[in-house]
From TrEMBL:
EC number of the protein: 4.2.1.129, 5.4.99.17
GO annotation terms (biological process): triterpenoid biosynthetic process
Keyword terms of this UniProt record: Isomerase, Lyase, Repeat
Protein name stated in the entry: Squalene--hopene cyclase
Xref: Pfam families: SQHop_cyclase_C, SQHop_cyclase_N
SUPFAM superfamilies linked: Terpenoid cyclases/Protein prenyltransferases
NCBIfam families, alphabetized: hopene_cyclase, squalene_cyclas
Region (Disordered) residue spans: 1-42
Metabolic or biological pathway: Secondary metabolite biosynthesis; hopanoid biosynthesis
PROSITE patterns documented for this protein: TERPENE_SYNTHASES
């Protein structure tokens, strides 16, 4: 099974819940906090730090499970059915997980607590049909009825209907065309492959091959029960198209033009110019092969991997070909075996991100938790991070930066083609915070990383995650574009992390850093918050930006910082925590900064408040937040958190980073305890007497 089998200490992808009630098994701890509120934050911190230290792998990294939705599991089964390698044992293990996520109304959601999603439900239903679940069974009939009431298969997203077309459940003729000739467009032409985001680009290239061959495998069963009584062939998934200011600006006339172009491409598909088509297919094949990573995966994420396998099979690659077999092994490593025998498929893996966050959190915990900057666990983690630096491969980002040396860090164990600025910034912060014996090596890696980050700055001063100036808008008008973000424009959270790093390494006054600060100030919402691209949502964005602005030497009294702090204060829940529902991406007026309190979002808010002016209202809010974390801490030192607080594609795809419930509270409490100690020397001496992690056997 996958390395991610480390998952939770109990190995669970979900836990008992993170509500506001204090559960009985926490009662003794909560009572102790109430009796001794002065030592509460330190005790909470030390319990959490002990748990986090115990989770480190022998090689030095941390890696927590990454849950998304059951399309990952259903598509894994569909891929294996297509390839003829699906086994009964694996199918039942995946089906067990799929069944566990079904809602009472028969549907499946995108995320915990969300409403049913049509495409997720259709794919999950098919996954259970592959496992042998009878359509007449009560849970299946409820699902089918739910699907029919919402338009059935014709109303699903394009990606779902591509999977259906592979088995003849949908006609290829009724899908948008992705011609391989797209590979031949020069960079100056709109919609060339490098104008797409890195994640979309990898998927699109593989799908140009699949779309060309239009394969159909014999369907193992019919899906008549998923079609409405009168099938309407209106624009599929039109109901899911939502105008969002963050990524989908409307351009009058473009959508109609692309619909007409798609009709022409359907005609061209029937009679292509074969010399050009064959050349385009060869270019696509070579492009795909060149981007396979050392672990066999493509791009470190599920969609490019599965579509690349299908594309290469269509091009004649056997299942035992080294390229195909390596990818299948990588996909198996992306699965997690749960204690009940269920099998969960991860969309990606996050060891570099998790390790950097763990190091930064434990450094913040510091002496209050018995952890010094040269702690062996931290030094070991930095050794591993240094080995993950990408020094000898220039990925797709180099297309627009031909003179920029290789550099950066990726999110996954292996993804040298696609390092990202967010991971790189967090890793460089970790390197800076640890007292490592190889100081020169750390300094050299830091210098290389900073050079690479400056090179990836966009022309407007901000930073995207994987590319610079990847800001196209017409991509969202093509018929294919109904599944999420297709471009990678600068975001507040990523820009903030980079600015914070640059300021910490002494470059706060560098003109490029100041341009990043100016970008952040321009990106502030009118209510004082910042949008969160990669975390949910305005709480995450605001909490990322405020420390960055302070690191960049803006005073705590700066109007932008004060208004951001005020926004956080206004959105603290009555129980003392913070939470934000994922619906804030679609309905910010109602849900921005509102939702059930969670450990990760409470910690984010604390980090934001600690960057502001320490006035009485802030001190009271921080004390209430620390108390919430103390009262809801589990006996083993971590927290329950079923809610998804990570973002893949806003509005379309979300993630439960199962390390967030631990990593961020350790960082926030560490910073909070340090501030309390600095403001009260007497208290600092008192809390120093409390036993810390070093008194506990971490083995």
């Amino acid at each position: 099974m996958a390395l991610s089998g480390m998952a939770d200490v109990e190995g669970r992808p979900e836990s008992a819940g993170a509500g506001t009630d204090v559960t009985p098994d926490r009662a003794d701890h909560a009572a102790a906090v109430d009796r001794d509120p002065a030592s509460g934050p330190t005790r909470t911190l030390r319990r959490a730090a002990t748990h986090l230290l115990a989770r480190q792998a022998e090689a030095g990294w941390w890696k927590f499970d990454l849950e998304s939705n059951t399309t990952m599991d259903a598509e894994d089964l569909l891929l294996r059915e297509y390839l003829g390698i699906r086994t009964a044992e694996l199918t039942e293990a995946s089906a067990r997980f799929i069944r566990s996520r079904q809602l009472a109304d028969g549907s499946w959601p995108q995320y915990h607590g969300g409403d049913g999603d049509l495409s997720v439900t259709v794919e999950s239903y098919i996954g259970l049909r592959l496992a042998g679940d009878d359509p007449a069974d009560e849970h299946m009939s409820r699902a089918a009825a739910w699907v029919r009431e919402r338009g059935g298969i014709p109303a699903t997203r394009v990606f779902t209907r591509i999977w259906l077309a592979l088995f003849g459940w949908w006609r290829w003729e009724d899908l948008p065309v992705l011609p391989p000739e797209l590979m031949l467009l020069p960079r100056r032409v709109p919609l060339n492959i490098y104008s797409f985001s890195s994640w979309a680009r990898q998927t699109v290239v593989a799908l140009t091959v699949v779309s060309t061959f239009r394969p159909v495998r014999p369907a193992p069963f019919a899906l008549d029960e998923l079609h409405p009584a009168v099938a309407e062939r209106s624009e599929p998934a039109a109901a899911r198209r939502r105008t969002r200011s963050w990524s989908r600006p409307r351009a009058f006339g473009w959508r109609e033009a692309f619909v007409a172009a798609d009709a022409m491409l359907h005609r061209y598909h029937a009679r292509p110019f074969w010399p050009l088509r064959r050349h385009a297919i060869r270019v696509a094949e070579q492009w795909i092969i060149a981007r396979q990573e050392a672990d066999g995966c493509f791009g470190g994420i599920q969609p490019p991997a599965v579509y690349s396998i299908i594309a290469l099979r269509l091009l004649g690659y056997d299942l035992d070909h080294p390229v195909i077999s390596a990818t299948l092994r990588a996909l198996e490593d992306y699965s997690v075996e749960l204690p009940d025998g269920a099998r969960m498929v991860e969309a990606s893996q996050s060891p570099v991100w998790d390790t950097a966050l763990a190091v930064n959190a434990l450094v913040e915990a510091g002496p209050a938790a018995g952890i010094e900057p040269d702690d062996p666990a931290l030094v070991h983690a930095v050794d591993w991070l240094l080995g993950q630096e990408i020094r000898h491969r220039r990925g797709d980002w180099a297309v627009n930066h031909p003179d920029l040396p290789a550099g950066g860090w990726a999110f996954e164990f292996e993804n040298d083609t696609y390092p990202d600025t967010d991971d790189t910034a967090e890793v460089l912060l970790a390197l800076r915070h640890v007292r490592h014996p190889a100081a020169r090596d750390v300094a050299a890696a830091t210098a290389r990383g900073v050079t690479w980050l400056f090179g990836l700055q966009s022309s407007d001063g901000g930073w995207g995650a994987y590319d610079s100036d990847n800001t196209g808008t017409i991509h969202y008008m093509i018929p294919f574009a109904d599944f999420g973000a297709l471009t990678d424009p600068p975001s507040a959270d990523v820009t903030a992390h980079v600015v914070e790093l640059l300021a910490e390494v002494g470059l706060a006054d560098d003109p490029r850093t100041r341009r990043g600060v100016d970008w952040l100030l321009r990106a502030q919402e009118s209510d004082g918050s910042w949008f969160g691209r990669w975390g949910v949502n305005y709480v995450y964005g605001t909490a990322a930006v405020l420390p960055a602005l302070r690191a960049a030497e803006l005073p705590a009294t700066h109007p932008a910082i004060r208004s951001g702090v005020d926004w956080l204060l206004d959105h603290q829940n009555a129980d003392g925590g913070w939470g934000e529902d994922l619906r804030s991406y679609d309905d910010p007026a109602r849900w921005a900064g509102r939702g059930e309190s969670t450990a990760s979002q409470t910690a984010w808010a604390m980090l934001g408040l600690l960057a502001g002016e320490q006035r009485p209202a802030v001190a009271r809010a921080l004390e209430r937040a620390a108390r919430w974390l103390a009262q809801h801490q589990r006996p083993d030192g971590t927290w329950d958190e079923d809610q998804f607080t990570g973002t893949g594609f806003p509005g379309d795809f979300y993630l439960n980073y199962q390390g967030y419930r631990l990593l961020w509270p350790v960082q926030a409490l560490g910073r909070y305890v340090r501030e309390l100690s600095a403001s009260s020397p007497a208290r600092s001496a008192a809390v120093a007497a409390i036993p810390g992690p070093r008194a506990v056997d971490r083995s």
